Amino acid sequence: MPWLTLSVRAEANYAEALSEALLAHGALSVDMLDADADTPDEQAIFGEPGEPTSAVWQHNLVNALFENDADVAGILQASCDDIGLAALPEHRVETLEENDWVRLTQAQFDPIRISQRLWIVPTWHTPADPAAINIALDPGLAFGTGSHPTTRLCLRWLDENIKGGETVLDYGCGSGILAIAAMKLGAGSAVGVDVDAQAVKSSRDNAAANQVSADFFLPEGKVLDQHDVVVANILTNPLRALAPLLASATRSGGRIVLSGILAEQADDVMRIYAQWFDLAPAVLEDGWCCLSGMKR
């Protein structure tokens, strides 16, 4: 049976109210996404330390799912009336065909070759090169499958620079992929921090699947030790706010690796981190960049 999907562009002052109204009028499910994702206006709202946050993004995409015979136009009008919107916001309605969603989701994630010796292999695949360093990964609900340029950039840096025995901090660990890779590449220890409890759980599960010993935790009440390598693949705004914390977590002579940065944002981030680090030129891929440097 096909379904109907409604996608509405909604501003922060009414996005949550619209979501609740759509549910009240029969939507089967509703979610919200950042309408400015993957642009310089992308906004972090998940409580990074030192970063002002809000419950929703400034510009939102409210997505709702309905039975195929639902009067979606009428439901949207009634929902807007309920919350006092005089005019319908920008929106579109599409038909979503019935599918095996588990199979389709899995089909989106093939093994990814990061380097000559490093592969990311979804748990439902057999490694193409059993002799390689294969990271078995179940993405779950956390960011970090190896498919995004920022993750690949960080993985390549680790592959080229982990020599053995280093202590590694992965700040904003997502799926745990960077901490797990560091351990498989020879790091002495790795810890991961994330503000999302689901990410911490996914990281722990993925570490266990890879038979890797690494510690993952929420940041509340945890004092960060100094590390040989600190890697943070998050967003530019949190990276700006977290600069003093990440610098203090890097030992003198240690290395920092930063990504989640659009190419046009690199100079601004470099100016901030140059207070503590001697930075290498940015490495670019598909409009994203990775910065790295040594702490003075």
Question: If you had to describe this structure to a student in words, what would you say it looks like?
Answer:
This protein has 296 residues and is of the alpha/beta class. It folds into two domains: 96 residues, 2-Layer Sandwich (Alpha-Beta Plaits); 192 residues, Vaccinia Virus protein VP39 (Rossmann fold, 3-Layer(aba) Sandwich), CATH 3.40.50. It contains nine helices and 15 strands. Strands 8, 9, 10, 11, 12, 13, 14 and 15 form an eight-stranded mixed beta sheet that branches. It has a four-stranded antiparallel beta sheet with strand order 2-3-1-4, covered by helices on one side. Strands 5-6-7 form a three-stranded mixed beta sheet, with helices on one face. Strand 8, helix 5 and strand 9 form a beta-alpha-beta unit. Helix 1 packs across helix 2 and helix 4 packs parallel to helix 5. It is globular and about 60 Å long. The N and C termini lie far apart (61 Å).
In short:
The protein is an alpha/beta fold and 296 residues long. Helix content is 28%, strand content 30%. The protein contains nine helices and 15 strands.
Ordered list of secondary-structure elements with their pairings:
Elements: E1 3-11, H1 15-24, E2 29-34, E3 59-67, H2 72-83, E4 91-96, H3 101-107, E5 112-113, E6 118-122, E7 133-137, H4 149-161, E8 167-171, H5 177-184, E9 189-193, H6 197-209, E10 215-217, E11 227-233, H7 236-241, H8 243-248, E12 250-262, H9 266-273, E13 277-279, E14 283-285, E15 288-295
Parallel strand pairs: 6-7, 8-9, 8-11, 9-10, 11-12
Antiparallel strand pairs: 1-3, 1-4, 2-3, 5-6, 12-15, 13-15, 14-15
Helix pairs in contact: 1-2, 4-5
Enzyme class: transferase
Catalytic activity: L-lysyl-[protein] + 3 S-adenosyl-L-methionine = N(6),N(6),N(6)-trimethyl-L-lysyl-[protein] + 3 S-adenosyl-L-homocysteine + 3 H(+)
Organism: Sideroxydans lithotrophicus (strain ES-1)
